[in-house]
Specification:
Elements (H helix, E strand, L loop, with lengths): L2 H12 L7 H6 L3 H10 L6 H16 L12 H6 L18 H19 L4 H23 L7 H5 L2 H15 L2 H26 L2 H12 L1
Length: about 220
């Protein structure tokens, strides 16, 4: 076996399986959302439930639910969970590419609304949003390069659903600032470490080849 063949074998062994579609990977679903999707076995189109969940979440945020200290703070996160059953669909519809940006916009809006409503320092809100934005940007770029994230990353990264529910729990417990601080440290550590180790492990020649194909 030549050195090139050995290198190809090593890349094949360590590469994460290609997802069914990039749009699904961009969703960044957590355990709960994926479990809800498994229940309908891909039979529910993803865009309609996302639009309904986002509309209800937006209305709840506009009426000030994010600033409450009771169970109502969970309402926006629970409303967006309507998008969960669509997570197992192939996302092959003409407008299904809209699902990930809608989820991002709603998640970021929820995080910011809860943070400002509970007097979390602005720099801490930006730090948490930055961790999530870094992960989503890294996800977009690596999928362009066909460097797919490991399956466990969405689980340990909590997914949009897990992060929203955790922040809502902080609102219920009256510890929003503490949750923002701990979640920021955790996500920056997880996403930063995984991104650096992933890119260092990718053979440079393979990435260059794919990048050239993308520009041709």
């Amino acid at each position: 076996m030549t050195s090139e063949e050995r290198g190809a074998t090593m890349v094949t062994v360590h590469m994460t399986p290609v997802p069914r579609g990039n749009v699904i990977a961009y969703r960044d679903d957590g355990v709960l959302s994926r479990a809800m999707g498994a229940l309908v076995v891909g039979q529910l189109p993803p865009l309609p439930p996302v639009l309904v969940g986002t509309f209800v979440t937006g209305v709840l945020l506009m009426v000030g639910v994010a600033g409450t200290d009771g169970l109502a703070v969970f309402a926006p996160a629970v409303a967006l969970l309507l998008a969960g059953p669509g997570s197992s669909h192939p996302h092959d519809g003409r407008l299904d590419w809209l699902v990930p940006p809608i989820l991002r916009l709603t998640e970021y809006g929820f995080v910011a609304s809860v943070g400002f409503a509970h007097d979390v320092p602005p720099w801490l809100i930006i730090t948490l949003l930055g961790a999530m934005a870094f992960h989503h940007y890294d996800l977009v770029y690596r999928l362009r390069q066909r460097v797919y994230p490991p399956p466990w990353l969405s689980t340990f990264g909590l997914g949009w659903d897990g992060r929203m529910l955790l922040i809502a729990l902080g609102g219920l417990a009256g510890q929003v600032t503490l949750v923002f601080a701990l979640l920021s440290l955790y996500l920056w550590g997880l996403f930063g470490w995984e991104s650096v180790t992933c890119w260092l492990a990718v053979p440079r020649s393979g990435v260059d080849a794919v990048d050239l194909e993308a520009h041709d």
